[in-house]
Design a protein that fits this description.
Pfam families: ABC_tran. The protein has 303 residues and is of the alpha/beta class. Helix content is 35%, strand content 28%. The protein has twelve helices and 13 strands. Bound molecules: adenosine-5'-triphosphate.
Length: 303
């Protein structure tokens, strides 16, 4: 049997976006494989929304190439009709009610599933007869999430989709996303600051920092790639000598150091000299990587 590679949903090469003299996206190249859930992560102002706008033809590139389903998305109906872009700042016509959004969605999305939309309306308790300008912040986000999921668009972008959504509603979003994705695989690109919440959802991580791609990595590999070593200062230092240290902190005579992947043998060696090994969450790892790239502020303080 011959293996036929699936074409990437997105291919970006040397992509650059300048706003006046400011370079928001700086010579970026990456692929987005079809039928995977991608996390587009990064600090405030890193360039996530700009990348999404470039991929959905809402911004013109200053340089480089963007290919979505093999074509340039700008003013390209055959590409754009396969895309759903859910963003926090979605504008709707004046006096539009929630039910009008749901009624008009099938015009835009060929795969629209009205049954799924109805079920999500119940899950999120969205008042369908109320005008959008009168519903709550969280309910407005829920409308976006409903459209994004029920669109079943082959390429769906969620740009920080849950401003104002409470913890229960966010969990419903994650659960429904996974359920529906399992039955109807498609390419999903999710930008979020709540990394730990979506950690198990993501199959691939693109980490953006100051307009560049800092990490382009399989999420499973990333999750298993780092660990924290805790022990007496001298023991920890001896163990990590010559290794790339992502983070170090200490109290008294104890040190806690985060390093990239250890082999099984190295883990046994660490244990044999009395060092404790602990996991590193995806969020911690992303913070460490971003901080190492030159920023010392706390991610959460800015997100
Ligand atoms: N139209 C514009 N004119 C000038 N600068 C812009 C414009 N749009 C975005 N920028 C700048 O480009 C950079 C990237 O912005 P972008 O909105 O893509 O960041 P982000 O990663 O989505 O941030 P956040 O997580 O805060 O939403 C920021 O420094 C922003 O100020």
């Amino acid at each position: 049997m011959t293996y036929t590679p699936v074409a990437p949903a997105v291919r970006v090469a040397g992509l650059t976006k300048r706003f006046g003299r400011f370079t928001a996206i700086d010579d970026v190249s990456f692929d987005v494989e079809s039928n995977k859930i991608y996390g587009l992560l990064g600090r405030n102002g890193a360039g996530k929304t700009t990348i999404m706008q470039l991929l959905t033809g809402q911004q013109f590139a200053s340089g480089g190439q963007v290919n979505v389903f093999g074509e340039n998305p700008v003013e390209n109906a055959s590409v754009l009709q396969r895309i759903c872009f859910i963003k926090e700042s979605q504008k709707y016509p004046d006096n539009f009610k929630v039910k009008h959004v749901l009624k008009s969605a099938p015009w835009f999305f060929a795969n629209w599933d009205a049954q799924l939309a109805d079920r999500l309306v119940e899950d999120f308790r969205v008042p369908v007869n109320r005008e959008l300008k009168k519903i709550s912040r969280g309910q407005l986000s829920a409308v976006g999430v409903i459209v994004g999921l029920a669109s079943r668009a082959p390429l769906t972008f969620f740009d920080e989709p849950y401003l104002g959504l409470d913890a229960v509603a966010r969990q419903i979003f994650y659960d429904r996303l996974l359920e529906d994705y399992a039955e109807h695989p498609r390419t999903i690109i999710l930008s979020t600051h709540l990394i730990d919440e979506v950690s198990n959802l993501l199959e691939h991580v693109l980490l953006v920092d100051e307009g560049r791609i800092l990490l382009d990595e399989d999420a499973e590999r990333l999750r298993g790639s780092a660990c924290t070593i805790v022990g007496r200062n001298a023991d920890v230092d001896a163990f990590v000598a010559g290794r790339e240290v992502l983070h170090r902190e200490g109290i008294g005579g104890l040190a806690s150091v985060t390093v990239n992947g250890l082999t099984e043998e190295e883990r046994r060696n660490a244990a044999s000299v009395g060092l404790e090994l602990g996991p590193v969450s995806l969020q911690q790892l992303i913070v460490r990587k971003t901080v190492r790239s030159g920023h010392s502020e706390d991610w959460n303080a800015r997100s």
